[in-house]
Every structure is written in structure tokens, then in C-alpha cells.
Design goal:
Helix content: 10-25%
Strand content: 35-45%
Oligomer: single chain
Order of helices and strands: HHEEEEEEEEHE
């Protein structure tokens, strides 16, 4: 559980204690195994998304129930980067964090802006698939101290998704050698993430 909280802390806070994070047992997949959304449309993807599911090589089933849902808003900038705002409830306080996702090569493939300030060697983000108005599946991989950590996030425009979409997410993460043990569906909360 502590490892996954650190992983979320990196995504939300940009702070990570590398000595506290053991090397994952499941290696990150080669990018050739991670699809990229065809004809990704930057403008249609922007807006608010809720984190409905998360899976990764630093998550375990014991995180279920501890991991709270959070929201992410993508705001397209003139240079085709996204200003990404995370809203999370932590210790009964609504916290907000902002990151920049910089287009890297093909549309739908990004890198974390200002990478060195987070102590990372690499951080990539990839839109695997989306229909823009209901769900999205995204792949994230960070490299820290020559070790790759990856996660897949299921986003919804609403805080709940059809069971078929959750099943599709589960099936996809299993193609990357993750198991049910590595999948977490965050607990819904009634505050913070719904605010404008």
C-alpha cells in the first residue's frame, strides 16, 4: 500500500522518496505493446475526467478501499501541450496540483514537462483509447533510478462507467502482464472532485 501511495504522490505532488520504493516484480511493457489512439484529437479530449480505475506494477489489491477517486482536468494550450490539474481529497482537505503534458512525437503521446524538477529520468504518457465523451484509457511510465514503474488509468467523464468499459480496462491491463491483484477501483467520494 505504501508503494502505491508514493506512486500517486508522484502523479499528484511530484514528490517521491526513491529509497522507499522497491523494484516492481512486473516489468514495464515495451511501448510496441501499448496501443496509441488513432487520430487523437487534442481539443475533444480536454475537459474534466474522473479516475475510475487504476492498475500498475506498484499497486496491489490491498490498496482497494484506501485509494480515493480523484479528478483530472486537461486544458489544451496554444502550443498543443496540456495544462493538467489534479484534484484530490487528502486529510479532509481538497488539494489541487498542476502539471504540464508536452506533446512528444505522435498525437496522444506526451512527456511530463519540467521532468528534472521531479527527480525523474523519464515520464511518458500515452492515450491508449478514448471515445472522448465517456471514457479514456491512458498509460503512464516513469523511470526513476533506472527502474520503470507503469500504470494504466481508466478515466470517465462521470464518476461511474458501464460495466463493459471496466471489463475492457481489466482485459487490457492483463495483456500487459498485470493481474487482478494489480487493479484498484478507487472509492467514490462526495466532495472536492466535483467542484469547479
Amino acid at each position: 500500500m505504501a508503494v502505491s501511495l508514493l506512486w500517486m504522490g508522484l502523479a499528484l505532488l511530484g514528490v517521491l522518496q526513491s529509497q522507499a520504493q522497491p523494484e516492481p516484480k512486473i516489468p514495464a511493457p515495451d511501448l510496441s505493446r501499448v496501443p496509441l489512439q488513432d487520430n487523437f484529437q487534442l481539443d475533444r479530449f480536454q475537459g474534466k475526467w474522473f479516475v475510475v480505475g487504476v492498475a500498475g506494477n506498484a499497486f496491489t489489491r490491498e490498496d482497494q478501499g484506501q485509494f480515493k477517486m480523484y479528478s483530472t482536468a486537461f486544458d489544451l494550450q496554444k502550443d498543443d501541450t496540456y495544462r493538467v490539474t489534479f484534484k484530490v481529497l487528502r486529510d479532509d482537505e481538497c488539494e489541487r496540483f498542476v502539471r504540464t503534458y508536452v506533446q512528444k512525437g505522435q498525437r496522444g503521446h506526451f512527456a511530463l514537462g519540467n521532468l528534472k524538477s521531479y527527480g525523474l529520468q523519464d515520464y511518458i504518457i500515452r492515450v491508449v483509447r478514448t471515445n472522448y465523451n465517456e471514457y479514456a484509457i491512458m498509460y503512464f511510465k516513469k523511470t526513476l533510478n533506472n527502474v520503470d514503474y507503469f500504470k494504466i488509468v481508466l478515466y470517465g467523464r462521470r464518476d461511474d462507467l458501464r460495466p463493459e468499459l471496466k471489463k475492457d480496462f481489466t482485459n487490457f491491463v492483463k495483456t500487459l502482464r498485470l493481474t487482478d491483484e494489480n487493479i484498484v477501483f478507487p472509492v467514490k467520494i462526495n466532495t472536492c472532485i466535483y467542484d469547479a
